[in-house]
Write a structure and sequence with these properties.
It is a single chain. It contains no helices and 14 strands. The chain is an all-beta fold. Helices cover 0% and strands 42% of the residues. The strands form four sheets. It has a four-stranded antiparallel β-sheet with strand order 3-4-5-6, with no helix packed on it. The protein has a four-stranded antiparallel β-sheet with strand order 7-8-9-10, with no helix packed on it. Strand 7 and strand 8 form a beta hairpin. The relative contact order is 0.13.
């Protein structure tokens, strides 16, 4: 069991559990981002269902996992999306189920929460669900359900509102 990672150079799968707390009932990877240098960033849960019991944000580098920002990505902050900059794997963005968007420029040592800054003139909201995210070159595009699409052309340092809107999910 545990986490398995494909190694392109070796052409095989290998178990990569270093530093993961293997006492979890289940280890579910709910969001995964991969840097060009092979660094992985994963949002994990430890429940029997994918969206049960969030376990935090982890980064795999040199064969070992490190938990990042435990005070931010705690048991109540479910991760929905992760995007890693293709230019620098220390720059990545993490979307959550309710608390919006977090961006780091230093490999996860610190995070900026962009939720309230994305559309400062909009009516304040209590739920910011990041439903999709993509990072290409220096452009980061983030979709927040029933709120909007936001674009950063400077590696997540600042965002502009797109005219494109994301509809509310049915149900």
């Amino acid at each position: 069991g545990g986490f398995w990672n494909w190694d392109d150079s070796a052409g095989n799968w290998s178990r990569t559990n270093g530093n993961l707390p293997m006492s979890w009932r289940a280890a579910n990877c709910v969001a995964l981002g991969r840097g060009n240098d092979g660094v992985l960033v994963a949002g994990m849960t430890r429940g029997s269902a994918l969206q049960a019991d969030p376990a935090g944000l982890y980064r795999l580098q040199a064969g070992a996992w490190t938990r990042l920002a435990a005070e931010v990505f705690d048991g109540s902050n479910l991760i929905t999306q992760i995007a890693v900059s293709p230019a620098n794997s220390d720059h990545f963005a993490v979307g959550t189920n309710a608390r919006g968007l977090y961006v780091t420029q230093d490999g996860g040592q610190s995070f900026t929460n962009w939720t309230n800054q994305l559309a400062p003139l909009a009516t304040p909201r209590n739920n910011f669900r990041v439903s999709a995210m993509a990072w290409t070159t220096s452009r980061l595009v983030v979709a927040v359900s029933d709120f909007g699409v936001f674009v950063s052309d400077d590696d997540g340092v600042g965002f502009d509102v797109s005219t494109f809107r994301v509809p509310t999910a049915p149900g």
